[in-house]
């Protein structure tokens, strides 16, 4: 299987976009709406979109696996953002020009400090040794997730640095309709980006876990394929999102053969998200922890141990996973 594109920066829309004078459906503070037009983005045609791989855009927070302290580490997304004063100037520019392009930044003075361990994302442009903000006024970047790191406690719950493992959700190799929760060596995820989804991320659109027993999991970008996706046509895609069961997703990300990534979000089409149950929750899931089930102490309360206790159990959907006694059904 070819290595799919790593999500390091904002992904452009598959269609050209325009700005409408109405409240954003995605950002409460934004008084304008960015919507798709019916015109295909020229970069799509250059990258041969017809041969691209269409994958589900998952609603979580972006992560990255790369080296730190001489071993594979999980990194959390942390965009360096402007100070309050610089943000006001930038928003005035956006309101005047409906774009962040052309705004003059002073990176040393206009941006908040970040941890010393912060690094800019790959392919961030640099000028005079300083990373350049994108058109949204952010400098995409990453910070390593340490064990028991409170700001990133949900990130740290899905990695075991001692065993060098991550908790991953992926389609089963034997049956693509079946989702599988398992452990994967962090070394196998090197230089990949993933989405952290779960109870305390983005309002939990997938209904995972509970306040008493939060559930979080990593999903490698590009791993959840969309079979028989519609053509890249505004009306066909709108109908697919609105009317089909498979279209109950946040969006689509196309991975082109030349490495280009393009996306389409429901908000680009004026469609609500989430809107009822999601397609991810329409698929059965199995917990497969056979290779590590003996590694975790039964008295521990961490997520790895909780899933190890469920080894071999099937659930009809993600929201049905629960760590109380009597899980649904063993294999």
Automatic annotation (TrEMBL):
Uppermost EC category: ligase
Keyword annotations of the record: ATP-binding, Ligase, Nucleotide-binding, RNA repair
Names of the cofactor(s): Mg(2+); Mn(2+)
GO BP terms, alphabetized: response to reactive oxygen species; RNA repair
Catalytic activity: ATP + (ribonucleotide)n-3'-hydroxyl + 5'-phospho-(ribonucleotide)m = (ribonucleotide)n+m + AMP + diphosphate
Enzyme Commission number, as recorded: 6.5.1.3
Molecular functions (GO terms): ATP binding; RNA ligase (ATP) activity
A Pfam entry, by short name: RLIG1
Key word Nucleotide-binding present: yes
Role this protein plays: Functions as an RNA ligase, in vitro. The ligation reaction entails three nucleotidyl transfer steps. In the first step, the RNA ligase reacts with ATP in the absence of nucleic acid to form a covalent ligase-AMP intermediate and release pyrophosphate. In step 2, the ligase-AMP binds to the nucleic acid and transfers the adenylate to the 5'-PO4 terminus to form an adenylylated intermediate. In step 3, the RNA ligase directs the attack of the 3'-OH on the 5'-phosphoanhydride linkage, resulting in a repaired 3'-5' phosphodiester and release of AMP.
Protein name: RNA ligase 1
């Amino acid at each position: 299987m070819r290595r799919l594109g790593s999500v390091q920066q904002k992904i452009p829309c598959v269609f050209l976009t325009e700005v409408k004078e109405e409240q954003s459906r995605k950002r409460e503070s934004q008084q304008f709406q960015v919507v798709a037009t019916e015109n295909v983005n020229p970069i799509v045609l250059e990258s041969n979109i017809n041969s691209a791989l269409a994958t589900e855009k998952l609603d979580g927070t972006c992560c990255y696996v790369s080296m730190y302290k001489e071993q594979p580490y999980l990194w959390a997304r942390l965009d360096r953002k402007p100070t309050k004063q610089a943000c006001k100037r930038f928003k005035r520019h956006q309101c005047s020009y409906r774009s962040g392009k052309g705004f003059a930044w002073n990176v040393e003075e206009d941006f908040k400090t970040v941890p010393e361990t912060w690094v800019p994302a790959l392919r961030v442009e640099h000028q005079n040794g300083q990373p350049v903000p994108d058109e949204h006024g952010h400098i995409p970047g990453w910070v390593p997730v340490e064990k028991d790191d409170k700001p990133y406690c949900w990130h740290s719950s899905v990695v075991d640095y001692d065993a060098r493992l991550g908790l991953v959700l992926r389609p089963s190799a034997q049956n693509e309709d079946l989702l599988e929760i398992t452990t994967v060596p962090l070394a196998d995820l090197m230089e990949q980006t993933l989405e952290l989804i779960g109870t305390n991320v983005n309002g939990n659109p997938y209904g995972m876990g509970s306040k008493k027993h939060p559930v979080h999991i990593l999903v490698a970008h590009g791993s959840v394929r969309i079979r028989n996706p519609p053509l890249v046509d505004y009306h066909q895609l709108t109908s697919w999102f609105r009317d089909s069961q498979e279209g109950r997703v946040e969006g689509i990300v196309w991975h082109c053969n030349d490495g280009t990534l393009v996306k389409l979000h429901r908000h680009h089409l004026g469609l609500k998200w989430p809107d009822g149950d999601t397609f991810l929750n329409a698929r059965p899931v199995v917990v497969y922890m056979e290779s590590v089930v003996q590694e975790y102490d039964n008295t521990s309360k961490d997520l790895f141990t909780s899933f190890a206790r469920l080894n071999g159990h099937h659930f009809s959907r993600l929201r049905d996973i629960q760590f109380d006694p009597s899980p649904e059904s063993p294999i």
